[in-house]
Specification:
It is a single chain. With 258 residues, the protein is α+β, with helices and mostly antiparallel strands. The chain has helices spanning 4-20, 89-109, 115-132, 136-139, 151-167, 180-183, 199-209, 218-224, and strands spanning 30-35, 38-48, 53-62, 65-70, 82-84. The protein has two domains: 4-109, Roll (Ubiquitin Conjugating Enzyme); 115-230, no CATH class. Helices cover 38% and strands 14% of the residues. The chain has a five-stranded antiparallel sheet with strand order 1-2-3-4-5. The radius of gyration is 19 Å and the shape is globular. The protein starts with a helix and ends in a 34-residue tail after the last helix.
Length: 258
């Protein structure tokens, strides 16, 4: 039995499909598709048409429950972990899919940097989606793009680094852990983003994602990476982690919006 809200969301989805059918890939901001006949699981691709970024999500919608799983490395949400976003339920009920998706879009893309600075990140994220998920191009045939020489090496190195940080309970911001091997493949603008997150790398992170951030010393910035109020949790009832080694610890910048 299809509940009234699910029926409304299906109407929203059909309207989205009709309204975006004539849009080119360069002008689209998102692509939304249900998982086969399951109206509770949706595949969502958020696109930033100016700098060419793309983030792949699985959105779970049930009665008063919203959960988001991010499959692409990013600076806001932990990778491949269910994040409870049920506080956005009133937005979904009142504004439908469009209102919810646009809130998520501005959460992830509201402060991105210039095309020049984000070009290597765009390439890495696109390669990640196409290499790590074989059904990606089947699910989103509208999204064009081809792998380039060196993409497999970049994705392999990033995957290895993410696993190393998951082992200690934390995951790095995607840009702050580029090792020496990747520097020739990414872009010289990321040379400062070494595996030690040096001072230059912290300044570059601010330039790209926090252009309006208040000036801080390098020590304060490193400490802020592990502040409990910048941590995002998968369980609302869990308290802040006690220490860096805690299994619930995630060193992600969390951007709140009203």
């Amino acid at each position: 039995m299809v509940i009234p809200l699910t029926r409304k969301l299906l109407r929203d989805w059909k309207h989205i499909c009709r309204s975006t059918i004539n849009k080119t890939t360069e002008s689209k901001r998102y692509v939304l598709k249900p998982q086969d006949t399951n109206v509770h699981i949706w595949h969502l691709l958020l696109l930033e048409p100016v700098v060419g970024l793309e983030l792949y999500f699985i959105l779970y919608v049930d009665d008063n429950v919203l959960s988001l799983r991010c499959l692409t490395p990013n600076e806001n949400f932990p990778l491949k972990m269910n994040v409870n976003i049920s506080y956005m339920w009133p937005i979904l009920r009142k504004e439908g899919f469009f209102g919810l998706i646009m809130k998520l879009w501005y959460l992830f893309y509201g402060g991105v940097g210039t095309v020049q600075k984000m070009e290597p990140v765009s390439r890495l994220l696109k390669a990640w989606n196409r290499i790590m998920y074989r059904n990606f191009t089947v699910c989103f045939p509208e999204v064009t793009g081809y792998l380039q020489e060196g993409d497999y090496e970049m994705v392999k190195d990033l995957s290895k680094q993410l696993k190393e940080y998951q082992h200690c309970g934390a995951q790095p911001i995607i840009h702050s852990k580029m090792n020496e091997h990747n520097r020739t493949n990414i872009h010289e603008s990321f040379e400062a983003l070494s595996s030690h997150t040096n001072d230059e790398g912290l300044r570059m992170f601010d330039d790209v994602f926090c252009p309006n951030a208040v000036s801080q010393s390098p020590t304060d910035k490193r400490n802020n990476l592990f502040r409990s109020d910048l941590i995002i949790y998968t369980q609302e009832d869990e308290g802040p982690p006690k220490k860096e080694g805690d299994s619930k610890f995630h060193s992600y910048w969390y951007t709140r919006f009203s």
